[in-house]
Amino acid sequence: MIEFLSTNLAPIMFGAVVFFLLSGFPVAFALAACGLFFGFIGIELDLLPTTLLQAIPLRVFGIMQNDTLLAIPFFTLMGLILERSGMAEDLLDTVGQVFGPVRGGLALAVIFVGALLAATTGVVAASVISMGLISLPIMMRYGYSRTVACGAITASGTLAQAIPPSIVLIVMADQLGRSVGDMYRGAFVPAFMLVAMYALYVIALAIFRPKTVPGLPPEAISFREPNGSSGHRSLLLFFIAITAIATGFGTIYTDVLGALKGTEVTAARDEIIVVSLTFGAAIALALATANRIFRLGLLSRMTEQVTFVLIPPLALIFLVLGTIFLGIATPTEGGAMGALGAMIMALVRRRLDLKTLVQALESTTKLSVFVLFILIGSTVFSFTFNAVDGHIWVEHLFDKLPGGELGFLIFVNTVIFFLGFFLDFFEIAFILVPMLAPVAEKMGIDLIWFGIILALNLQTSFLTPPFGFALFYLRSVAPVSGYIDRISKRRIEGIKTTDIYRGSIPFIVIQVVLIILLIAFPQLITGSLDKKVEIDLDTIQIAPPPSDGGWGEEGGKGAWD
To answer: What is the pTM of this model?
Structure first.
């Protein structure tokens, strides 16, 4: 028995932690208990030194001193302040009026607002609950398919896990030992590809199954001009003009910077985009403000409303992500600026009081402590697991996989996808990722690419029945029984749990397709990263200076040959 334990301690330890996780025992305590228990067993079996466990406090203090993890409470506080300031309601109402008249317009509005909320709040629960309370009754009122409406809301809410500044990406960067800024930069293209694929699915429904996504009737449009028009034409012209101005300014900025630095040096792509968008947003806000104050009549009511509702959150996104991408601020500093900016926005809107601030701080503290305790537990577990050569056991598990790197990626993503049916993404990220990262790095897999693929895979855990959290959030606010709609006076049947489950399936398929594309085309992620400088160590020659202390002709020649 003792010999069996000695030779199989790593797999027994892994099986024990899986058992505790599936039994529903609190994750943080299950991980820490397994780490300590098997650490004592390893010491008793003379597999581990008696001083091993003395190093655990140092590992725990190392977690406390990790500045990167400070970004989690900052971004969480930013999102909760914005959510409680009513930004979601304003965005959904305004964007719904813009897209509502066309078939599928309300679903498209939910997707685009979900992307905006993801880039500002980063909290799945807040996004799903807000859109469920505001958009779901309107979709039901005007005849949307229940499954389409539920699927659009839950899938859009989970975008908070894919679009920077995502907490999942912060955790993934920490576990993989990579830069959060690089993780954000690499996730940018895949995240908005996902938004575009969601939108294309809704457009396809509008073309081939129009009855499932009807447009709003004219009487449902609240923005009307004195002449009876809706203001859509004015909004389109205004958008084209601001885009042209921002593009022109970006071109001028590039030329001026190139002239100042030299013709061979120009602005970086990220810098041009951030500067252009910031300038365009400032011009749009200035024009809308002047039009409202001086009653110039240049812009329609819809154009004014869209500008005042969209520009502040977009400006906050530019402030946070722009400074991170440009290297001006670290993710932690960007999160701090975002939290401060969210408070200022809420104060300007007169929607921030002491009660709201205290509630946001309490929720932030709970989530941060939750993450920290799981991280401490997983550190204790992985410390003992590696000490009993668990990492070698994990490597041997993948030795016999066919297909090499591709086979490894397919197998890992399949396992994580099915684990997402039962486990939370924090549990998967803190337990499995530290085990898989050394194997991936040994195979030569780019860890930024690997981490973003896993993060998008973990996003599906919010949608997969029966334990997807986004499904639970929508179930908590969706009407269970039928009711009489206060506007149409018609009876509307309640939402069944099966409607919510069925609605998530097409969006899960879309996410799986995106993961396949990212595996097949790594440049979709790595193309956004800074190119590494390759140095051939075999060609480097170092020549000592001549004995006279100067660089003569022979010395100079030898130094450069």
So the answer is: 0.81
